[in-house]
C-alpha cells in the first residue's frame, strides 16, 4: 500500500511540474494507467478531443444507446436516461461542456434555424404540454433528408427509452429552438 501511495504521489508531482518528461518504471506503468484513468483530463486534451469530433461520430455513439430505458433525473446508461441526461452524456463523452438540465440548453451553443440545421445540433422543445411555452425536452438531430428531420432522444412517451423520432406533428408544435454545439 505504501508503494502505491508513493507511486501516486510521484506521478501527481511529476504531472504538475511543467512539461518535463516523466519516466515511469515499466513494472508500474500499467498500475499508473489504471489509477489515473478517472482523473480529469487536461484542458488541452479536452480541446483536441472536441476539435476532432464530427457529427457522424457523435451520432454513432448516441445510436449505440438506442433502447436504453427512460428514467427521470438520470444520466447513466446502466440505469437509464432522461432527455437532458442523454444529450449531456453524449456530448460530454466528446469533451463538450454542456448543461445537465433541458432548460439550460437554451443558452448553450449557437442558435440556428431548422432550415440551417445540421446533424448533431440540439433541438429544444416545450414539455409535453405545447401550450406551456417553457423548455422541457431536448434531443439531437439524427438525420436530415427528403422526409425531414429525425432526432434521437430519451423519450418518456410510448417507447419509454432512447429512440429516433421524426420532427413532425406533436414534436413540431412543441419545437422552440435549435442550437449548434459542434
Say how many strands there are: 8
Number of helices, counting only DSSP H or I runs of 4 residues or more: 6
CATH homologous superfamily assignment of the largest domain: endopeptidase domain like (from Nostoc punctiforme)
Q: For the report, how would you describe the main beta sheet?
A: 6 strands, antiparallel
Strand content bin: 15-25%
Question: What is the straight-line distance between the termini?
Answer: 44 Å
Report the principal-axis shape: globular
Protein name: NlpC/P60 domain-containing protein
Signal peptide: 1-20
Domain NlpC/P60: 52-182
Keywords: Hydrolase, Protease, Signal, Thiol protease
What does this structure look like?
With 182 residues, the protein is α+β, with helices and mostly antiparallel strands. The protein has two domains: 2-39, no CATH class; 45-180, endopeptidase fold (from Nostoc punctiforme), CATH 3.90.1720.10. 32% of the residues lie in helices and 23% in strands. The chain contains six helices and eight strands, in the order ααααββαβββββαβ. The chain has helices at residues 2-15, 26-35, 43-51, 55-63, 83-92, 169-174; strands at 75-76, 80-81, 110-112, 122-126, 135-145, 148-154, 162-166, 175-180. The strands form two sheets. The protein has a six-stranded antiparallel beta sheet with strand order 3-8-4-5-6-7. The longest helix is centred in the first third of the chain and has 14 residues, at 2-15. It is globular and about 55 Å long.
Could you give the topology of this structure?
Elements: H1 2-15, H2 26-35, H3 43-51, H4 55-63, E1 75-76, E2 80-81, H5 83-92, E3 110-112, E4 122-126, E5 135-145, E6 148-154, E7 162-166, H6 169-174, E8 175-180
Antiparallel strand pairs: 1-2, 3-8, 4-5, 4-8, 5-6, 6-7
Signal peptide: 1-20
Pfam families: NLPC_P60
Protein name: NlpC/P60 domain-containing protein
